[in-house]
Structure formats: C-alpha cells, structure tokens
Amino acid sequence: MDIRNYLSNSRKRSHKEVASDSDSDSDSTSDNESVMPDPRCTQPAQLVQSKSDKKKAYKSKLTYRQQWKLKYSWIDCANAEMGMFCVICKKYGKPPGNARGAWTTRGITDWNHATEMLKLHNDSKWHKDAAITAQMAQQSDLSVLELQNAASARDTKERKKKNQAIILKLLCSIYFLIKHRIPHTTTFNDLLALQVANGDEQLAHHLEQSPGNAMYTSKFSLTSLIEAIATWLRRKLLKSLRESPFFSILADECEDISTQEELSICCRWIVDGQAEEHFISVLHVLACDAETITEAIESFIASSDLQYRKLVGQGYDGAAVFSGCRSGVQVRMRTHAAHAVHVHCACHRLQLASIQAAKTVPEIQKVFGMMGNIWKLFYYSPKKMQALKEVQAVLGLPELKVVKPSDTRWLSHERCMRAIRKELPALITTLQQLYETTGDAEAFGLSTLLSCFTGVASICFLSYVLDTLAKMMLPCKGR
C-alpha cells in the first residue's frame, strides 16, 4: 500500500511539473513575440522610411548657390528663406499681371527648378525692358516713373505697328478672295498658309506665337474684316459723292435667296470732269410699293448727308412702281428735287422694244423659242452636254455654252445667237445622234429647224441684227 501510494503521488507530481513547464514556455513565447516583431512586416516599412528620409535629406541640401550670381548679376538673395529677387525689375520693371509679384515682391524659393526659372526670367521681355530703362536712368535725369512710362509708350507703339502690319496683310488677303469671288470661309486659312510657305516670316510668327483669341482667323473676325473694308470703301465713295456738284440715283429692287426684298442703290456723279458710276448700298425693304421704296431712298440720302439740290437725275426700270407718272417713285422724289429728271434705262427700253417687235414676225418668234429650247435641252442634261463637247472636239470647234435668252436681259439674245451660229455644225450633229441613239423627239425637231433653209437664214439674219443692237446698247452701259 505504501509503495502504491508513493508511485501515485510521484506520477501526480510529474504531471504538474510538465504542465507548469509548458505554461512557462508559452509565457516566454508570448513575451518574445511582443518584443521581437516579425521581420517580414518590418522590412518594407524600413525601406519606405529610408526613401523618404533620403528625399528629405536631398531637399534640405537644395538652397541658393553663389555661382548663379556670377552668371546673373541682377540676383538679390540676402536670405535663402526669403528667396531670390531681381534688382532691375524690382526698381525699374513693370511686371505683367500674370507674374503675381514674382521676382519683385515675392521671392523665388523653388530651388529644384531655379536654373530654368533664372534663364526664363533673363530672356523675358519685361526683364529686358527693365534693363533698358535702367540703362536710360543712368544716362538721363528723368525719374523712374517717367522712364517706365516712356518704355511703356515705346512698347505700345511697337506693338501697335506690328499689329497694323498683320491686320493689313489679313485685309489684303480677304480682299483678294472677295475680289475674285472665292469663298473666304473655306480658303482663307489656306491662303495664309501659302503666304507663310512663300517666306512671310512676320505672318508666320503671328500665326505661331499669337494666342487663339488674337489670331483674327475665325469666321467672326473675317466678317469683321469684310465689314471694315466695306465701311472704308463706302466712306471713300460718299466723300467723293458729296464733293461732286451734281449726282443722280439709280435704284432697282429684287428678292434675295432668303426671300427678303432688297433695294440696290447706285449713284452717278462727276469726278474731275468725268462721270463715274458706283454701287453704294443695299437696303432691306418690307414691301415693294412706291411709298416704302421712296422712304428707303430718302433714308439713304439723309444718312449719307447728301443734298437734294445736287440731285439732277433718277433712273429706274419701267415698272409702274418706279416710273408711274402719278404716284411712282420718280414722282414722289420730285417733291424734294423738282429738277431730278427721270430716265428709264435705255438698254432696258431697247430690249423691250426689240422683243415686242420680234413678236410680230412669226419666223423670228419661232427662232427665239428654238433658242430657249436648245438651252434647256443641254443645260438640264449633263449627258447631252458631254455629247455636245465630244462632237465639238471632233470638229475642232471651241467649247461654247448656249446662253439662256431672257426678255428682260439685254444682250442675252445676242450672246445666245452668237454661240448657236458658231456651234451650228456641232449642234446639228449632236441633235441627230441623240435622235438616232435615244429616239428623242425634241432633239429631232430642233435638228430639223436648224437644218432647214428658213432656220439657217433666220439665224444669219438675227445674228446681224442682234449684233447691231448690242453695239447700240454698249455705249448706254458705259463701255
């Protein structure tokens, strides 16, 4: 029993010792874990901390360098924390608004980019102007403010001179396009590019260096340039018109593409003993009655500062609105200028008289109708026009187009008949080919009229008559 008790007690003690040892080991392990951190976690933090420390150390070493003073003598840096200043600009300069006091009231402390900033400031225009002002201050007794004002005035004058030269180039370019009836909105930039390619350095510098809102190449700027040209020309013409002892007014109304009624006004006056005629203005009118048109003409005369006592003539078409003997425009205008003689356009009257006389002769009326049908046949069919050109090339004839004859357009019948007479062999051949290939009845009828004796004789006779009438009309048109 004693032995058994002894063995059981010894086993209990051994179990307690093992448990206490394991508890002590776990405590020691936890203590060690709290003291010794995991190296896998500490390694990146140490690396990041070392990079930031290196960056801070590098920035702390950046400061003002004395060697900059050797290259740029205008540097003033009494305290590195206050930054660098420019002695010249601080005393004599007028920095631009976007500088925000840099180099004058606010020092430069960006040592990392100090080299580039020093070079930029040394090459800047306002620093160079300040240097010129400082040099002038040493040679004159003027104050700094007076020197700055003189430099500013000189700079403004130079800039104004350059801008005037650029504007003149742009005006000449847009005037060239308008003079040759070339669309300016699509070709203006190409024309400027051509001038730059031909060696215009001043224009090239303007297009490269000017800001986007000061290039004067937008549609709004082009419209402003055109209006400026029109204003200048109108002022020049009106000045000459006012100086003339006499003048007359020519007016006619029409409808533009936007169905807006417009009244075009031309004037004829004396310059150095010679009569000159120029287009002056286009007026928008709300109606085409005699009262509205008269008010528009009166408004034009008043705004142009013209005198009714100098108005000696007025020319319009034969419409009753203008030429009516009771309430037409010409009668209403005589209430202001009783000596303003009304003249119906001579070319218009001759054209109307010729058309009216031609209607009394059936053969001539038939030829006039044939002229209109020939124009329609080829004008509205590019395929037929191409066939006519091919026949003209084979026969060695010039490529002439048949002009549209109009009863109210003088010289139109003469030009149309001249083209038909010169292209008569090509027209007959083309019309016969069109009938043989397509069976076009209209082409067959026209070819028959052109080939018969009566048709050829009428064409030759009318060519002579219309040519004579054209010679009578040309002096009336001032040619």
Features:
479 residues, alpha/beta, Nucleotidyltransferase, domain 5, 5-stranded mixed β-sheet, two-stranded antiparallel ribbon, 20 helices
Average pLDDT score: 80
* Spatial shape: elongated
Record the strand order, biggest sheet: 5-4-3-6-7
H and E order: HHHEEHHHHHHHEEEHEHHEHHHHHHH
Work out the oligomeric state of the chains in this entry: single chain
CA distance, first residue to last residue: 159 Å
Helical fraction equals 55-70%
Total number of beta strands: 7
Question: Would you identify the regions where 5 or more consecutive residues have pLDDT less than 50?
Answer: 22-49
Number of helices: 20
Specify the structural class: alpha/beta
How much strand? 5-15%
- Biggest sheet statistics: 5 strands, mixed
CA-atom Rg in angstroms: 47 Å
Summarize the structure.
The chain is of the alpha/beta class and 479 residues long.
Structure description:
- It is a single chain.
- Helix 16 crosses helix 18.
- Among the domains are: 74 residues, no CATH class; 99 residues, Nucleotidyltransferase, domain 5 (2-Layer Sandwich); 127 residues, no CATH class.
- The strands form two sheets. The chain has a five-stranded mixed β-sheet with strand order 5-4-3-6-7. A two-stranded antiparallel ribbon has the order 1-2.
- It is of the alpha/beta class and 479 residues long.
- It is built from 20 helices and seven strands.
- About 6% of the residues have low confidence.
- It starts with a helix and ends with a helix.
